[in-house]
Structures are given as C-alpha cells and as structure tokens.
Amino acid sequence: MDAKTIDEIIEKYKNPSGMVLGILEEIQNINKYLSKDALIYVSKKINVPFSQLYSVATFYSFFNLNPVGEHIISVCTGTACHVKGAAEILKSLEYLLGITKEESTEDSKFFLTTHDGCFSLNAARCFGCCSMAPVIKVDDKMYGYVTIQNLPKILKEYGWSKK
Ligand code: FES
Known about the structure:
This protein is of the alpha+beta class. It has helices at residues 3-11, 20-31, 36-46, 50-59, 79-83, 86-97, 151-156, and strands at residues 71-76, 111-113, 119-124, 136-138, 141-143. It folds into two domains: 3-59; 71-158, Glutaredoxin, CATH 3.40.30.10.
C-alpha cells in the first residue's frame, strides 16, 4: 500500500494516536493485511511506538499480518464451536484446500494460503453466533451448522473445484 493512501486514512482521524484500531482496520480493509512496512509508516506518522501497534495487530484475531488469499475462510474455534467439531471442520478444510498447518503463533492463530492464492484459512475466536455452531466465515458471509459434508458446496461458491 502506498504512503498517500495511508496518509488519506490517517487524515480522517482527528486524534490519530487514539484511533489506532480504526486506522489499522481501514488499512486492512483495503490491503487485506497489515504489512510490517505499513505498521512502521503509521507508527512514525501518528507517533505511536511500533511495538504498541504490533501488540494491537496481534491481539485482535481479525487483523492479518501476512498476505492473504482472494477469499478468507475463518473457522471459529470458540468453546461452542469447539464442542460441535470445529477441529474436524478445520482439518477437512485443510484437506480440501490442500494446505496444512505448518506454522502457528503463540496465540495459536494461524494463517495458511493456497498456492494459487485463492484461499486463506485461519482459526478465529467466537463470532457471536454460538447457537449456530459450528460456524465458519468466508469473507464477510457467515455459515452456521456447518458439516464436513457441506464444506465442498460452500467452497464451490467461491470457485473451488476438486483437484
Ligand atoms: S463459539 Fe463459535 S460462534 Fe461463538
């Protein structure tokens, strides 16, 4: 993302240092992830230490620190979804997309992207609709009562085809 775009986002905020979340969210909405360069730039521009921005970016599960695919699939691993089989849903998605969990961060959040850059898969915390557990989200669309059997149908909506 170029500096001009980031400047335009920052200018919208009257008190940029108090509006870190909003600024980072807007950058991610455009760029799909928060690059290290963008965080460094924002840090200098609004005079908030990089370490503080990084802490915010890693604390909230909806922030991505790595480049992501065209479609982002988030599997809720909150308590209700966990009880209803979130781990199996996650495993099945890894299998269907041909990606495996190779890296994890301290908070167990992980982000995997298919080689063709079509899908990114990650684990997330409660989406606030536990009664529909297990729940997954693809981009901005929520899917409840998900089963392993209906995963291919959901993926096909986003151009996935069995290889
Ligand atoms: S635990 Fe999954 S939506 Fe709440």
